[in-house]
Predict the structure.
Amino acid sequence: MQELTLITPTFLFSAISLLLLAYTNRFLSYAQLVRTLKDKYMEDKSALTMAQIINLRKRLYLTRNMQLFGVASLLLCVVTMFLIYVGFQLLSVYVFGAALLLLIISLSLTVIEIRISANSLEIYLSDMEKVGKEKSMKK
């Protein structure tokens, strides 16, 4: 096995930092959407709005977990660098492996969240198609 150097975990820093930025932007857009959906639901308690609220709750849960696993991965990268620095080479390899696993979990949750987001858009598109068909039948 090749020795792990301080350079290896630092490569993940920029990638994980960008991921965390993307996750935070997603979370902020969800926060705005929650406020909008709340106002909309208070005015009109439609099934479409309730479906969007349920969908958004799942997405928020996934985004929170994506962030947690991403931060934990970054933290373990720092711990790996410290272990390399103090000379615990074998332990650093295992800690770095754990950091990679946490990053894999975070990215997997991202894929799931993207699929749910696409389903959310499908709900809107289906509703728009339904309204469009009703309008064309009335003509």
